[in-house]
Amino acid sequence: MTTKWFRVASVDSIPVQEGRRVYFKKNEFALFNLGGGEFVALDGHCPHKQGPLADGIVAGNAVFCPLHNWKISLNTGCALAGGAGQVKVYPVKVMDRDVYVAFSEGKLCEPEAEAVMPAAASDDEMNVANQ
Amino acid sequence: MEKLVVVGNGMAGIACVEAILKHNPDFNITILSEEPYYNYNRILLSSVLAGEKPLEEIYINTQEWYEKNNINLKLGAKAVDVRPDEKVVVTDDGAVVSYDKLLLATGSDPFIPPIEGVQKEGVYTFRNMADTNGILEYCKKAKKAVVIGGGLLGLEAARGIANQGLQVSVVHLMDRLMDVQLDAVGGQFLKREIEKLGIEVLLSKNTAKIMGDKCVDGVLFKDGSIVPADMVVIACGIRPNVALAKKAGLKINRGIVVNDHMETSDPNIFAVGECVEHNGKVYGLVAPLYDQGKVLAATITGNKGLVYTGSVLATKLKVMGIELFSAGDYKDEGEGKERVCYEDHAFGVYKKLVIQKTRVVGCILVGDARDANRFLEMIRKEENVSDKRKNLLFEEAPAVAGSEADVMSLPDTETICGCIGVSKGFIVSSVRDNGLKTLSEVKKCTKASTGCGTCGSVVERILKAVCGAEFQEEKKDILCHCVPYAKTQLRQMIRTQELRKVQDVLDIYGNGVGCSSCKPALSFLVDEVWLGAHKEDRSKRFINDRVHANIQKDGTFSVVPRMRGGVTTPDELRKIADVAVKYKVPMVKVTGSQRLDLLGVKKEDLPKIWAELGMPSGHAYAKAVRMVKSCVGTDFCRFGTQNSIETGIELERMFENLYTPAKVKMGCVGCPRNCAEATVKDIGLVGIEGGWQVVIGGGAGKSVRAADILCTVKTTEEALDAAALFFQYYRENGEYLERTYDFVPRLGLEKIRHETILASEDVKQGLRDRLKKSKERAKDPWAVESKKPVSPMQFQELVLPKEMEALILD
Q1: pLDDT tens-place string over residues B98-125
Q2: Total domains present in chain A
Q3: Which A residues 99-118 touch B at CB under 8 Å?
Q4: Which of B234, B380, B490, B699 is 20 to 30 Å from B177 by CA-CA measure?
C-alpha cells in the first residue's frame, strides 16, 4: 500500500516543546516538536471538551490540554491520569528539514499500561484566567 | 443514515459508543437503557456504599454528552424482544424500535442461588444504583448484616456496609476468600486482614435458608448453624445477561459468542462487554470491555481489521488499606510451572509469582501491591525474565541503613518519639487503622514528632514502609511531584545555583520532564528571582502567556486592552469599535473590571489587533497585575473625599506589566461608600476624610474575603508607598497561584505589617528598589511582540492548501 505524505512545516517553524494547530481539508490536527528532530501528530481536539491540544504544555511524552488540563499521551493519543478517551496518532516523517504527515494513516493506539482500574478524572488545579 | 440501536447504557456500551463516534460514522444512534440513569461508573458503587463518594460524582456521561452527539437515549426502556428478520427491538412499554445494526451491551445479572427466603424484606443484591440506594437506606435501620459471597463484590459490599456502622459477617461457600483470584495461602492472608477490620469471615458455609417472617432475622446454613442478621446482601457472582440474545436466536454458550471482530452469529447484531463470550472466556472486569469496544467500533463502522485477542485478567482490590492484586494464571501446580514466593505473616504480606519456562504467567500480591504494574507488564509482554530471577520479587536489592526496611526491623515496643513517648507499634497500627498517608496525618493522629521534631524522618520512613505505594508527600509544602521541593526552597536554589532556565531546574532538581503545574510555576519563580534578566523559554508557559491572550472554550482568544482606572476616551472607543468590525469579533463585552473584552479572536489576528488598537495589554490572561477599578471620586462625585480616579490611574501605572504569584486586582475609592468595591480587592485604597486607608487581602473570587486594613495614612504618596511595599512583599513571598486572600491569612497581618510598613528603612528601601528594578525591565508585551514575535510562528497555525499534493513513498 502506498502512503500519502503531506509536507506540513519546516523543522524549525515550531519552537521545541511547542505545538501548532494544523488545518487540512476541514480537519484539525496538532503537530508537536519534541526536540531532537522528533515530531508527533495527533488529532487536534482533546477527547474531553475538544480543546486545542496544540496549545497545550508538552511534558515528556504527554501534552496537557489548555482547557481543563487533561493529560494526553503523545505516544498513543490516549487520555492518561484517569481521563477517558483517545485521539488518533498520525505517522510523521522528517525529510530534508521538512516535516511530513500521513493524514490518511491515523491510528487509534493501544493504551500504555498506566493503572489497572480506571479512576475518576483527577481534579487537577487548573490554570484559570478570567477577564 | 443507518440506524444503530444499542441495548444497554452501562460502561461497556457507552465506551463502545464513544469509540464508534471517533470513527465519525454515519449513524443515527438510539440507546435503550433499562436503568433510569445516565451512564455511571459501576466500579465506584462500592465507594458510594462506603460513603467515600456522593452518588452524583460517579456519572461518566451527562445529558449534555448524549445531546451533543445526537444520541436518542431512552431511559427506563427495557428491551424485551428482538426480531432479527424484521430488524426490530421491542421494549417493555410496547414500543418497536427498528435498527440496521444492533449492539447488545446487556452486561450481566447478579446470580442468585436457589435459597429459600430471598424475597424477604432486607435482602439485596449489589449490582446497580438502585441496589446501592436500597442498601444505604436499609442500613439506617439495620444493625447486623450478612454478606453471602466472599468474592470481590462481596468484600466490597461488606466493607461499605461496615462503614455504614453495621456489624458484618461475610459467608463464603468455598474454603477461601476470592477463590477465583487467590490461592489457598493468599486467601488465608486476606482473611486475616479482613478480620482485622472487624469483619467476621465464615468459610465453607453453604446457605440453606434466609430466615424471618416478612423481614430477615437470620441466615441458616446447611451445617445447621445460624447467624442472626437483619439485612442480607447476596453477592454470589454475576451471570451474562443473554436473555435478549436468546430471543434473537444468536449462538450462546455461557455468554453471547463473538469472534475476534466482535461479531455474533447474526451479521447485523454485535455484542460487547460482560454479556459476551470470546474464545471461551467471559470477562467481568472493566479493562477487557474497553479493549472489546475499540475492536467492535472498528468493525461496526466498516473499518474492520482490528482484532480482539482476549485480555489478561487483572484484579486490583483495596479494602480499607488492604492491597490485593491478582493477574493471569495463579495456579502453580502443573507441568513446567514454578513458584516464587514471599510470606510475612506478621505484616500480612504475601507475594507469589507463577513462572512457566522463562516467563511470568501469574501473580498474587496481598498486603503490598506496589509492584502490581511491573508484574502485569511482565505477564502482558511475555517478557523473558531469566536474567532477573535473582530478584524478581523485589526490584532493588534490600536497601541499607536508614531505609524503610531497616526501620521496620525495629521491635514494636521501640520508642520512636522520645518527647511524647510514642512507640513504633503504635505508629504502625495508627497508620493501618486510619489509612494515614502523609506525615502530617501521622503527627495529628499519634502526636509523634510534634515535640522537638527530630524523629520526623524516622516516622516518615515507618509511614512509607507501611503505606507502600499509598504514601503521599506533604502536599502543601512541595511545588509538585516533578520537583519535590518546597517553593521557598526552590526560590533559594534558583538564586544560589544561578538557574536561569526552567529546564535546568527540572533537570537538576526534578524528574527532567515536569508537567503543566510545575512548568508555569517554575517559570514564575525564575522570572521573579532574575527580575526578567534572563531569556525565557516560552514552551514552559501556559498558552495564555505565550500569546498574551486568554484562551476560550472554542480555542479562540480574548483581547482586553488596558483602560487604566476604567477611564477611556472617545478615540479609544472608536479604535476598539473599528477593530471589532474589521476582524469580525463575535462579542464585545464590558468586564467586571471596568474595561472592554473582545471575545472570539483568532490567534493569528492577535498581533494585528494589538497594533491597530495601539493600547497596552490589560494582562487579563495572566498571573499579573490586572487593573485598578475606581469610582468617580472628587472629580464629579458630590460625596467624594479623595481623587480616586487620578490615584487609581497612578496606582495602575506603578504596577502594570508586572507578574505576580496569582492575579492582582486593585480598587481605589474616593469615600467609604466603596462604590468600586476596593475592600474586596487584593489591594485597595479607600479615601477617608483627610487621608486613605490601605487595605490588602480582599477578594470576591472563589472565596469572598473582606480586606484587612494595612494602615491608615494622611497623604496619597504614603498610601501608594504602602501599597507598593505590600505588593512587592507579596511578589517575593507568595506561592504560585496563591491569591492575596490566602496569602494574608497564611502569614498573618501583624507579620506582614512588621515586614513592610513597620520594617526598618533598609528593608523598605530594598523592597522599593527591587520593585523599581523589575518595573524598569517590564514591558508591554503587546507593543513588543506585535512588532517582533518571539519566534516567527508565535501566532501562526499551519494551514495547508486544500489541493496540496502528496508525496508518495513506498
Answers
A1: 999 999 999 999 999 999 999 999 999 9
A2: 1
A3: 100, 108, 113-118
A4: B380
Average pLDDT for chain B: 89
Say if the Cβ atoms of A118 and B58 lie within 8 Å: no
Nearest to B290 by CA among B672, B698, B13: B13
In CATH, what number is assigned to the domain containing residue A125? 2.102.10.10
Whether the CB of B319 is below 8 Å from some CB of chain A: the reply is no
Domain of residue A34: give its range: 6-130
- The ipTM is 0.87
**Distance (Å) of CA B421 to CA A115, B198, B210, B244, B788:** 40, 28, 51, 66, 66
A128 in reach of chain B (CB within 8 A): no
Distance from CA of A71 to the nearest CA of B (A): 9
Interface test with A, best of B43, B523, B543, B589 (most A CBs within 10 A): B543
Residue A38 lies in a domain: yes
Distance, CA of A48 to CA of A68 (rounded, Å): 8
Q: Tell me what the mean pLDDT of segment B391-416 comes to.
A: 66
Contact A120 B57 (CB under 8 A): yes
> What is the model's pLDDT at position B319?
60
C-alpha cell at B564: 487604566
Chain A residue with CA closest to B370: the answer is A115
A129–B544 CB contact, under 8 Å: yes
Inside any domain, residue A1: no
Which amino acid, residue B571? D
Mutant choice from B16, B800, B809 vs A, greatest count of A C-beta within 10 A: B800
Residues B756 and B711: their CA atoms lie apart, in Å, by 11
Judge whether B786 and B779 are in contact, CB under 8 Å.
no
Residue A95 domain flag = yes
pLDDT in tens, B230-251: 999 999 988 999 999 999 999 9
